[in-house]
Records
---
Amino acid sequence: MPRRTLGLEQIQVRPGRNRKHRLAPDLSNFEGEDLLQLFYGFFARMPPDHLVDERRSRYIRIDDVLANGRAVTVVAESGYYGDAGQTIDVKTHKTSHTRSLTESATVRTRLMFVLPPKQQTGLFLVERQGLVGAGHDLIDEFRRALTAKYAQHSFDTDNVLYPDAWAQGAELLEVEAVAYSYAPDLADGLMAKGAPIGMLRQSLVPSRGAGGVLPSALYKALRTHQVKTSQLLAFPNGETIDDTFVTVRRDGQKKTFALDHDKSPSIRVEITSEGERPLTDTPFIRRCQSEARDFYETLGVEWREEWAVGTWTDEQRSRTLAPHRPQDDSTA
């Protein structure tokens, strides 16, 4: 099984389109609505055809929506369609199913939205399997619906930067880079030139005399993109690295993060490593709540355990938000 990671993304609301405007102070009471309840109702009542993107041949299906305290988890199946293919039994090497142009091979991933009371910042936790997941598509759908309903406000989403608690004073234990579809440049006659044959993985660990840690300057350079992982780990020329993972330790606790390749040192937290089965829903929810607690504590918010539990009432589940349909936009 491929690794599973959690990406952290925050949402804030401003009146108008100017990012200099003051943030809405309480997203749990925004224009008389609780954004968390709108999030639940939006996906719990999502028309199934709305998430079929014919332009991108992208398919998403909502399987479940789970409310726990001040968090809502959306369980989704997602994949692409438009290419015929086969489902192979890896034990017998026989075809168990032939996939048509209108069928999609999907992956089950989850998206959690956490919003404590009286906060101006909400937190999305986006699960991905390797590079695959529905979370970002679902966030975009939610934002479009909010913008259509509250046209006088802007809904800003941003990647959460590397938490200071883990960026300052943490020890770097390992750096690993992964290319998921490696295509070696082998001579004709051995195999088709440039054909992907598997995953390429390179890692850097401390030498015996380094005290079990890598230099702190290297950790900073990786976070701020001052050094290219492909050069550091001697990847073949031109090979694209899909993921860079760093394992760090602070105050006796170890975590593995995926460093995104954009300019911001955003993070994805490893929740299962290669070969491990995905977390079931209850452990997944607990892990997300743990990461949410760490996030809000960096904002100076005292986390309350009551936010992680609690059954919703029928009234809370009754709130809804209509999906945005592009054909509803005025062309005037």
Note: The longest helix spans residues 281-298.
---
Amino acid sequence: MTGYGRAVEHLGPDVAREVGNRALRVLADLLEDTDHICTFTPADAPIGDGGVQAAVNTLIADPFHAETLTPAVDWPHIVREALPARFIASWRRPQTWADGTGPRRLADGLTDWIVAHLAHLWPADADCWTVRVNESKVYENIYLDLAVRVGDRLWLLHLGVCD
């Protein structure tokens, strides 16, 4: 955990969710370029009798559905690995997003801030899965869907880019 852990430890879950969600929107705005749009959204639903797969499908927009759920470990690592690097339009202005530049430091800091808020909602050892969505229709060109189980609720973190 980065130094941000202490900054959010006093927050209630609703505040952590809202602040984390706002940080995701800011990071999406920062990473958007003229030819792509970032959609970074967390959502949650109860896990009913249908189990995890059914809960994931309630959180994915129709007509899409989860084809596979692959068990994963260490959701913080998965999120940090994806954000911001997977969503940077580096082919447009690579010098802007190089390590150590102002925009890259800001994006990396926002990522740490987001992970700190999600960690307030999700235990580090929570059951999690990466989700592969059916590709029968157009879906985000670059995406990561991560499902995280916390008690009787399932969270879906969608990180995507579309042209």
Note: The helical segments are 4-8, 13-31, 51-59, 75-82, 94-97, 102-121.
---
Amino acid sequence: MFRAILPDGDMECANYEHGKHGVNIFTADEEFIAFIPYTNLVALINEEVQLGDEPSIAD
């Protein structure tokens, strides 16, 4: 799951597509939720990533 962070709140989505002027966000069933212009998008985060997750470096 992803979370689109906006200046006045946030929206949960399962998938998204980058466009020229913003992102389209979708449900898990690929139903369109909203278009968010880049000027209104603070961040788009992957909720499955834990803080401190970093790729391991094999020696």
Note: Strands lie at 2-6, 9-13, 15-18, 22-26, 32-37, 43-46.
---
Amino acid sequence: MLFKAFKWRLHKDISALKYSSDDKLDSHYLNVRLHKPNAQPAKTLEKLTVYVMETGCVHLEYPVETVCLVFDLTGFSLANMDFNMFKYLATVFEAYYPESLGRIIIHGASFPWLDPIVAAKVYFTCSDNELTQCIDANYLPVQYKSSRDKDKYKYIRAQPGENRRLEDTKAKEKLFEALTREWITVGTPEAKPAGTEAEIKVEREQVAKDLCVAFFKINPYIRACNMFHRSTPQVAQDDGSVKWT
């Protein structure tokens, strides 16, 4: 599965997709009841799906390592049904983002066709109150009656020069080489003698933190900024932490 995922990421050129600023995408928000399957190429929706997943990874902080997807099907009809897109989603979560899906919430409609493994992670809700059994009312968007979050969504456009480090290939190569050497040596027997089980557990957790720090050092050179980097106050921090307000 790991080899297949790497091959897929190379074939789909995921690195180039992460270079894309979010204001260059064909769509930022997909309202299901307005979705027309033939209104855009299937590749466009596939690209958007992968971009959303890659952007979602920025917002995951240990111990939270999975995402929650909410499909609001209020006003949904058969004219909006896109089986190819749904199958693509299932394939992506199964093969290319394994164990990344924590829960899917289907709000406002039934959904009879599901793989049994995926079905175990799917919840059906009808009323806004039922949504609060899965998502705290403080985090529900303002359009839901049960919401206690009164902030209205406002897209923040890309700022000039925010992705200048993407073009600094020399700095990227130098940093990547240095970090790779650190990854190779940190936590190895040569770096530190093996200890008790408790010591090894502490060391493993420290290595995980070191890898996370190293990743976010290289991140500005391989991933374009998104609106969560531009928000005031800033949600996605430069050190990889996430601060929601």
Note: The two ends are 37 Å apart (CA to CA).
